[in-house]
Design brief:
- It is a multi-pass membrane protein.
- This is ABC transporter ATP-binding protein.
- Its main location: membrane.
- It is a single chain.
- The strands form two sheets. The protein has a six-stranded mixed β-sheet with strand order 6-7-8-3-9-10, with helices on both faces. It has a four-stranded antiparallel β-sheet with strand order 2-1-4-5, with helices on one face.
- It has about 600 residues and is an alpha/beta fold.
- The longest helix has about 55 residues.
- It is about 65% helix and about 10% strand.
- The chain has three domains: about 325 residues, ABC transporter type 1, transmembrane domain (ABC transporter transmembrane region fold, Up-down Bundle); about 180 residues, Rossmann fold (3-Layer(aba) Sandwich); about 70 residues, P-loop containing nucleotide triphosphate hydrolases (Rossmann fold).
- The two termini are about 65 Å apart.
- It binds adenosine-5'-triphosphate (ATP).
- The site of adenosine-5'-triphosphate has 12 residues, from α13.
Length: about 600
């Protein structure tokens, strides 16, 4: 087992995590330099204390009061220096550790925000929360004073051993007898702790995901009476976590107890043999006192290195988990920011575009479409035909496998995400609202817009009267994801947000599906006005929307099945005509 543990150790394992951490450590190099300086101060103080103890004891045994009197100020100085050194060590350790963790959190958030959409789909929200809450905290064993101790402990060991050799070489060699046991236990416990820690973190990830989904889907949970089932799952996992954490504490306890036993053994051995040497006048009582005091400092670095190794192993698990996210390649390093939409309507062109989410099944298949500036094109088709995917491609969330998408004659792939998305105002199927006020949610579409423009947009979306009827009007809190609003209110707010953005291209994905007949009519009017000077792509299933479009595309399995104006398509007696017939007869269709 020990051999396996030692074999498991490989410098290679640390290369990648430290390569990731290096820029953060370098940024706070002053704190690390300070820690490095106080490391030497600490080593010097350890030796000085041993010297002081031996010298003052010998002076007492000799009855030399003059010498004792001279030693007192030295003792006061040593105590003062060690208080100052302790304070600065703590402060610098905090700076060296907390700053790196803070920067790492920001870097992680930036990386997650920049991850391509395809990679985001593979991330579980619980895992992301665990990275932020536990893993960043978990790398503590690789940074700050833990990192300095990698140098400090061997230094203390060598300095103390050399000092002890000066007192008596045989005693010094004798006190090394416990080294093999100390090193072996460190290697063994390190691997056991790391193994346990891996399971703990995977379990935390599951628990965080479970909690996250429970709160996000709270009404689904209640409507299906899943409370008991979820509670049972949570308590079972939580119980297992408790057992693993108990095991972790037990392992650490054994490790600490082993260290103390090794220290006590070395102390007893040197005390017994040392007492024999004192009785034979080989060494003085003071020298023996210095020696036994130093044996602790000899064993502590050994156990410390073993403990450090165990801590490093635990931290390595956290670093590996962070690396799994941070190593995912990014298309860009710059966070997209609001870019003022360019004025005037813009054209859109899909040129022989093919795309599939998994690289094998084609969701969009050699799709070509020209949308001249200022025109409205409606896209209809069965559920899963690829309508929303076309929007995702247009917004640059995914890249076409073949073909190109042109916006205003420019290849979408060549535009920065900020510029590309600046062209478009998008109202998706599920309008996401942020917790905060109505005003916060509206203004994020166009920062710095005037109050009058904001109210105009709300009026156009037929939501202004409702907003002013709220207790605090535009400053009313709408709850997490807009929970305090109805589906139709949320949708109208999302439409107002899109109107406010005033972008040259409108992407409406079933934008009016949650509205009642009367409200829909009013919003349709507003949208109609808005569409006049804009290029609009609309995924629609209501005839009113489709009929007014300049052009209609019927999508089937990612290909254009039919296209033309409303009248042309009706004359074709194909899929579109069947769709309109079903809607007119009030039959619920799976066409949208
Ligand atoms: N992120 C994704 N990863 C993998 N497959 C996906 C993803 N999003 C959509 N799909 C698949 O791509 C196909 C097209 O989906 P899309 O959402 O574009 O259809 P749609 O026409 O908008 O359907 P609906 O009208 O029901 O919204 C579907 O088969 C769907 O399962």
């Amino acid at each position: 087992m020990i051999a396996r543990s030692i074999k498991a150790f490989s410098i290679q394992e640390f290369k990648k995590p430290y390569r990731m951490l290096f820029p953060f450590l370098w940024k706070h190099r002053r704190a690390y330099a300070g820690l490095f300086f106080f490391m030497f101060v600490d080593v010097a103080l350890t030796l000085a204390y041993a010297w002081f103890m031996g010298t003052i004891t010998d002076a007492a045994v000799e009855g030399s009061f003059d010498k004792l009197g001279r030693l007192v100020p030295a003792g006061v100085l040593l105590i003062s220096l060690s208080i100052a050194s302790g304070y600065w060590n703590n402060m610098l350790d905090f700076r060296a550790t907390a700053n790196v963790k803070k920067d790492l959190k920001e870097h992680l958030l930036q990386h997650v925000l920049l991850l391509p959409a395809a990679n985001i789909g593979n991330l579980r929200s619980g895992a992301v929360m665990t990275h932020f809450m536990d893993d960043i905290h978990g790398i503590g064993g690789m940074i700050g004073s833990s990192l300095i101790r990698l140098v400090k402990l061997p230094l203390v060991f060598i300095a103390v051993f050399v000092y002890m050799l000066q007192i008596h070489w045989f005693l010094s060699v004798l006190s090394l007898a416990v080294i093999p046991a100390a090193l072996a236990s460190g290697a063994l416990f390190g691997v056991l702790l790391r193994r346990n820690n891996r399971v703990i973190q995977a379990l935390c990830e599951n628990l965080n995901s479970l909690l996250n989904e429970t709160f996000l889907g709270t009404f689904v949970v209640r409507s299906f009476s899943l409370e008991k089932k979820l509670y049972r799952t949570y308590t079972a996992e939580n119980e297992r976590l408790f057992e693993l954490e108990t095991k972790d504490t037990r392992l650490r306890g054994w490790f600490r107890a082993g260290g103390e036993a090794a220290g006590a053994a070395a102390f007893l051995l040197s005390l017994c043999v040392g007492a024999y040497f004192v009785s034979n006048r080989v060494i003085s009582i003071g020298s023996l006192l210095s020696f036994v005091n130093l044996t602790n400092h000899l064993i502590y670095p050994l156990m410390g290195i073993a403990g450090l190794w165990a801590g490093l192993q635990s931290s390595l698990t956290s670093a590996e988990r962070l690396l799994r996210v941070l190593e995912q390649p990014l298309d860009t390093r710059e966070l997209p920011d609001y870019e003022c939409p360019p004025p005037g309507a813009k054209s859109i062109a899909f040129k022989d575009v093919s795309f599939g989410y998994d690289g094998s099944t084609r969701v969009i298949d050699r799709f070509s479409l020209d949308v001249p500036a200022g025109k409205t094109v409606a896209i209809v088709g069965a559920s899963g035909a690829g309508k929303t995917t076309l929007f995702q491609l247009l917004l640059g969330f995914y890249k076409p496998e073949t073909g190109d998408i042109l916006v205003d004659g420019l290849s979408a792939g060549a535009l920065t995400p900020s510029r590309l998305r600046g062209y478009m105002a998008h109202v998706p199927q599920d309008s996401f609202l942020f917790s905060g006020t109505v005003r916060d949610n509206l203004l994020l579409a166009r920062p710095g817009v005037t109050e009058a423009a904001m109210i105009d947009a709300a009026r156009s979306a037929n939501i202004h009267d409702f907003i002013v009827s709220l207790p605090n009007g535009y400053d009313t809190e709408i709850g997490e994801r807009g929970m305090k609003l109805s589906g139709g209110q949320k949708q109208r707010l999302a439409i107002a947000r899109a109107i406010l953005k005033d972008a040259p291209i409108l992407l409406l994905d079933e934008a009016t599906s949650a509205l009642d007949g009367e409200t829909e009519h009013q919003v349709q009017e507003a949208l109609q006005r808005l569409m006049q000077d804009r290029t609009t792509l609309v995924i629609a299933h209501r005839l009113s929307t489709v009929r007014n479009a300049d052009f209609i595309v019927v999508l089937d399995q990612g290909r254009i099945a039919e296209s033309g104006t409303h009248e042309e398509l009706l004359r074709k007696r194909g899929t579109y005509r069947e769709l309109t017939r079903r809607q007119t007869n009030g039959i619920r269709s799976n066409y949208r």
